[in-house]
Specification:
about 130 residues, mainly beta, 11 strands, globular
């Protein structure tokens, strides 16, 4: 079982920045990548960004392209999400996720939640106007 722990959320004014972290641990952590999703009140969980462990290819939702950057520290099994130029519409609980065994990298790294095996507990990001 993989455990995921997010941190770094908080309250920030519009135009500000935050950096989220997600640390993965577990007896047999092995993944080809990690995703970030978010869920705003009353809305469905949506894909934000993904990164492949090998090669570091990245993928983003159109709503965050050019503002958010996903990165990884392989040695620490940690993924980061640098969020700049934040907007009130970015307010949500942010979750990191790892893929299910046997899932397709093509679908997981493009944000299909059905490919997710484990979710973190989430970290709240609130952007005030």
């Amino acid at each position: 079982q993989v455990q995921l722990v997010e941190s770094g959320g908080g309250l920030v004014q519009a135009g500000g920045s935050l950096k989220l972290s997600c640390a993965a641990s577990g007896r047999t952590f092995s993944s080809y990548g990690m995703d970030w999703f978010r869920q705003a009140p009353g809305k469905e969980r949506e894909f934000v960004a993904a990164i492949a462990w090998s090669g570091g290819s990245t993928y983003y939702a159109d709503s965050v392209k050019g503002r958010f950057t996903i990165s990884r520290d392989i040695a620490k099994n940690t993924v980061f999400l640098q969020m700049n130029s934040l907007k009130p519409a970015d307010t949500a609980v942010y979750y990191c996720a790892v893929p299910a065994p046997g899932s397709s990298p093509h679908t997981f790294l493009r944000g299909d939640p059905r490919s997710v095996s484990s979710w973190g507990q989430g970290t709240q990001v609130t952007v005030s106007s």
